[in-house]
Amino acid sequence: MGITISSLRRRLQQAHDLLLQIPWSKTPTTLPSDVIFDILSRVPAKSMCRFRCVSRECRDRISDPVFIAAAQERRPPEPLLVVGSDHDMSLRLVDMDGTVVRVISGMNRPWVPVSTNPDGFVCVTTGFSKDDNLAGVIDLTTMKMPVTHLKSDRAWGYGRAVPSGAYKMVRLGFHHCEVFTVGDNDGWKRRKCPPFRFDGSSHDNYTAAVNGMLHFLPVALPDEEGTLLFFDLESEEWKCGIKGPPKVKLGRLNIRLGELNGSLCMVEPEVRHSGYTNIWLLKDHHKSVWVKAYTIPLDTSAIDRRHMMPLRVLDDDGLQLLFYSREKGEPPELHIYDRRHGTYRNATKELLGHDHVSGIGFCSLRLESFLSAEFQCPVSSSYFS
């Protein structure tokens, strides 16, 4: 059996307590250097950032590229909420304890984080209006953000290619498909059109990227089950063949896609039992096997009134689910669903405080990015047509 998150947390806490007993002055330590190296590489990223301030010796050790590489192999990236603030048009990265670990400033306009992003990147949009629709991708290590124009009546999605790791955006029209690679100054490149008609946008969670595949909900009649098609971000070719969950009509406008802890998920409002929302997880990509993981007592059947999107499973057993919901005309709210009791509670103030929130997303940050940036980081934008 593998190590559970709870046992890992206990070990990290023990390492944290032991680390506080280490004398960081020039007097000889009682612990060998390799033991100190091993302990430091296992403490949480936030603690490691604080320990850099203890002494020059500690700072140099933690800043060593060899140490950073070893530490990153021993821990998953730090999960963070991405919160858009209407107050100062900044983005805040908030950990699962509600602590703001970074403020991204210099955005120049309100940006809305798109729900889930790959490691070390944050995808944002300006929303969708008739005049000016933009999407940007922030590299949390370099703080550079390429920005490009979208079209309000066209679909788009984003994700990371596998195995190259290139971050790409895809936008669709009725007769074209275009791909934009972050870091490539060539702008949008035309690719083969998808073998289906598609409307909507990822701002409405009609697309989701998982394991290098960008999944799309195609247009279908409301009573059709339909199939999901997906775009291979590495080869930049279209694939097909994933069926939806049993008896789920993909043509319904209130069906949404997302990424949840590395799996493709689908949000389906209950039809026969009004007032509930199902969360399906894709377990077998080749056989189109889905599992209904959660049934939440939340009514999202009216697409023009309320929607929700899961963000993160908070424990090994899948008993607690973090999700956000939004009423029309109201700021989004964070909730934690407890599967044991079939109830959820509002965690907005607990995790986000009292700031007026324009949007909520989710990302993860590697240790290298934690150590390479200050608390407040201005973003550097570049625009592509």
CATH architecture of the largest domain: 6 Propeller
Q: Taking Cα atoms only, what radius of gyration do you get, to the nearest Å? A: 22 Å
Q: Find the CATH superfamily of the largest domain.
A: Kelch-type beta propeller
The main pleated sheet reads as:
5 strands, mixed
The number of helical elements comes to: 7
Q: What's the mean pLDDT score?
A: 81
Tell me the number of strands: 26
Query: pLDDT below 50 for ≥5 consecutive residues: which ranges?
Result: none
Which strand-content bin applies to the residues?
35-45%
Q: Would you give the CATH topology of the largest domain?
A: Neuraminidase
In short:
It comes from Triticum turgidum subsp. durum (Durum wheat). By secondary structure, this protein is an alpha+beta fold. The chain has 7 helices and 26 strands.
